[in-house]
Amino acid sequence: MFLVGLSGGIASGKSTVVAVFRELGCAVIDADVIARQVVQPRFLAYQQIVHYFGSEILLENGEINREALGNIIFSHPEKRQLLNSITHPKIQKEMLKQIFKYFVLGYRYVILDIPLLFETNTVTRFMKHTVLVYSDPQTQLSRLMKRNGLAQTEAEARIASQLPLDEKCKLADHVIDNSGDWESTRRQVLRLHSQLEDSLDFLLVRLVAVTAVAGIGGLVCFLLRHFLP
Ligand SMILES: CC(C)(COP(=O)(O)OP(=O)(O)OC[C@H]1O[C@@H](n2cnc3c(N)ncnc32)[C@H](O)[C@@H]1O)[C@@H](O)C(=O)NCCC(=O)NCCS
Ligand SMILES: Nc1ncnc2c1ncn2[C@@H]1O[C@H](COP(=O)(O)OP(=O)(O)OP(=O)(O)O)[C@@H](O)[C@H]1O
Fold first, then answer.
1. Which pTM does this prediction carry?
2. CB of residue 16 inside a 6 A radius of ligand 2
3. What CATH number does the domain located at 2-191 have?
4. φ, ψ for residue 30 (rounded to 5)?
């Protein structure tokens, strides 16, 4: 089994791309979804967040007010670092569990949707392929403002909290440009999907070749040992 790391910038279109991969039957693990689960009130990360950020970041029902926490961490790098240090180890542990689940289920590759894949670049070495979902700066900004109802300065602060998309493009093996319409993105995902399937075939061919060479080598040794004086 191999891993495909998928990333992008905030509102660049990762979920849009991942939806097409899911439609094609691919296994996908979404770090944003896990990040939401690990801060539920019954977990340790929740207590740590309340301890460091105070009860003012809680909603009336006791859950974390994500908007309030986002406003803090996207404008204070040291607080972002603190939140990352609380949540990231738990997110990685849960991702590992899910990778194992898909391995047991027999999936041949798994797509990991990790927004900060290239920022925390220790993870990229476990990926056979990396994919970047790009959108041009103006499109990214306007989609983010519209989706989250943010003012331009707030949206710019969120974008600035991540490595620029142009930098990430240089680090990725594949780029999907989501600056255009849905159909154009869909076509690119279909093309990439068939490339990933081809690379899977290539892996199988290599595995068969290695097994065949080992088998022939064993047979030659056997013959030499038994038939040579
Ligand atoms: C700050 C939080 C509360 C904001 O929640 P909200 O529901 O508004 O946004 P959501 O979780 O859907 O994230 C949206 C996007 O924000 C960006 N983002 C989230 N966390 C971070 C971060 N620590 N640094 C930079 N960008 C981030 C990502 O591009 C992500 O896809 C939340 O994102 C969070 O808990 N972040 C810390 C965990 C984390 O790093 N998550 C990213 C996946 S590893
Ligand atoms: N090709 C497109 N055309 C028009 N709108 C789009 C397109 N792709 C995405 N969008 C819209 O842009 C917004 C961001 O897209 P999406 O949620 O897929 O990004 P994301 O990278 O997963 O975001 P985040 O990391 O912040 O959660 C959404 O409101 C989505 O509907």
1. 0.89
2. yes
3. 3.40.50.300
4. -105, 110
